[in-house]
Write a structure and sequence with these properties.
Blueprint (H helix, E strand, L loop, with lengths): L1 H9 L5 E7 L7 H23 L12 E3 L4 E4 L4 E4 L3 E7 L4 H17 L4 E6 L5 H4 L17 E4 L2 E4 L11 H10 L1 H4 L3 H11 L10 E9 H9 L3 H10 L3 H9 L8 E9 H9 L20 H19 L11 H12 L11 H21 L1 H15 L22 H12 L13 H13 L36 H7 L6 H12 L24 H29 L26 H16 L5 H6 L16
Antiparallel strand pairs: 1-5, 1-6, 2-5, 3-4, 6-7, 7-8, 9-10
Helix pairs in contact: 2-3, 9-11, 9-12, 10-12, 12-15, 13-14, 14-15, 17-21
Amino acid sequence: MAGVTNILESVREDDFVEYFLFPPIETNDEQEQERILTAILDKANKIIHKYTKNFLWHKDEFRLVVRTSISNYLNELDGQRENLPPHLYGVSHYGDNIEDEWFMVFILQQLTREITDSIVRVHDSDGEFLLIEAADYLPSWASPETCENRVYIYGGNIHLIPTTSSNSFLTMTEALQKIRQDPTCTAGSPDIQNSIKLKLNGYPEKLKDNIHNAVVYIPIGVAKVLQVKPNLVSAAVQAFCNRDSVDLKACRAMKYFPPENRVKRRIAFTKCLYAMLTHSKYIPDRRTGWNLPPANSLEYKCNILGLKLACGFEILASQAKPTSDVESDRGWLNYSKSLKEKGYFQEYLEHSLGYNNLLNKAKEYYVDHRDSMHQSNSIGQEILDITRNFESDLEEETNLVDDDDSWLNISPEDLDKMLQEKYGQKKVFNVNNNTDASTFTEKLSSFLNHISDVDGAEFPNDKDSPLRPPRRKDKNKVSFSREAKSEENATNNKINFDPNSFSCALQNILNFAIPEDDSWDLESDSDMSEYEEDNYVKSQTYENEKVKNKLEKYMEEMDKELEGTTMGKSFEKKNGDNFEDIENFTPVDINVNALKYILESYKSQMGEAGPSSTMLGPMGVHLNPKENLNLD
């Protein structure tokens, strides 16, 4: 049943970040380990408080606990447990605000600098997410599979433990030994260090820019709670925005925070929380007692925000005492759903004996760990305790002013600027300065005829293509080059693959085209002559001839219909070509017509997404919608 227990422990939401801090502890005595770790935790908490004082977390706060060597760790990669050295441990959910995750990385980096010889490992549901920021500078062996348990922070720097085999698995204990034995060998390259440094640049000062203050009209009970613990606004917003039908019943009753007596308060939100609360649609039940002013009133905004916030606190308070009936517990329903997705119930049929045994074991585990798994229960109880013990009266505050929330609306120009800062300056194809249509169509033809590799298409001969950053040279990558040398094939195990021949052969097999190569001519003296009497070949040839004749008939009928129209005059014609042997004939300029109709399609999009921008974007060609696009 070890695997069963592993799954019960490992089920959690996907927005988690897990972190370990390993200080140098030599003793094997558990009591001595706990004493040393407790002293280190006190020092760590002072460092954490220095950076997080008055900081508003979006969901879970950063918190460390003591773990002695008797504690073990469930490795979700292979489902095995590993006995770890004594360490400080924490796991937090960051919700929709990825900024909190990187702030935690910053704190961990500072801890390794201020706590001598300590090593940190941090990962999330995506694995070694630190390497995502440094993806352009990783060694050729690095991949999500080979980097497991190989990425650490030591002395404020990123350390990446190299591997000699793509399948070699490294335990955390082994990794810690390698770093302490030879830190210069495991240290990441300067490019890797700089990429992480750039991501963490500006912390903790820039966190002030992430706060938005808003005036809200809230019940007195909510104002009391926020005066004692302003950080509870995060839990209230999360509860309201993630409400379900059970929560809506609590919002209609408003048992704990009735709307009769309300006061105005200026509340601090993170920008993410404020945006979530603002854009979460909610129409209150009139019977509840919410008297909202008209939507065009200046008071409407603070009223509706206060209503939503009060409902969030009401939901949390209603969850303070979990029901004894597990089946009606919403947390249990979500937990059991996650167990099913992870294959906990194996292949047992629902309500079978094996299924029921696993179900009962899961219920027991859930009841024992409910408070730690669902913090809303303990938060709700904390809210009720504050409302019962807070006796002082609250006075109405005046001259309260909202922060400007124009940042909620991003113009297309601002979005382009943000994307350019993140992914680089995009190339603009100026049609008016490139009047030769052949230049444009050459780009289009070159892109369409360019042979991509397994990593995807990129614009040919464009090293700075905005499609993606420069790729690393991988020694183990399959070669699709025609000119692959036999010596390289022998030494590097590359595959010599001719895409043109393969494509041609595949099309012939699937009968997408009638082959014109002599080698496929059934009447020739080639090696195919032995199949002359094959009835299948004859029938296929007959079918191909029927298709060809039918297509020619369609073309003739279409020409007859077009003779009486003026469609031919709508195409741009070439000048200067000599076609004196054909009377009244001027050839169509294919390049100009292709560019003309692409521009017309782009103009009709009016700057929005459409077929033209979708086709040209991956080629690295971006038209400027502010310029007058014409060919005259």
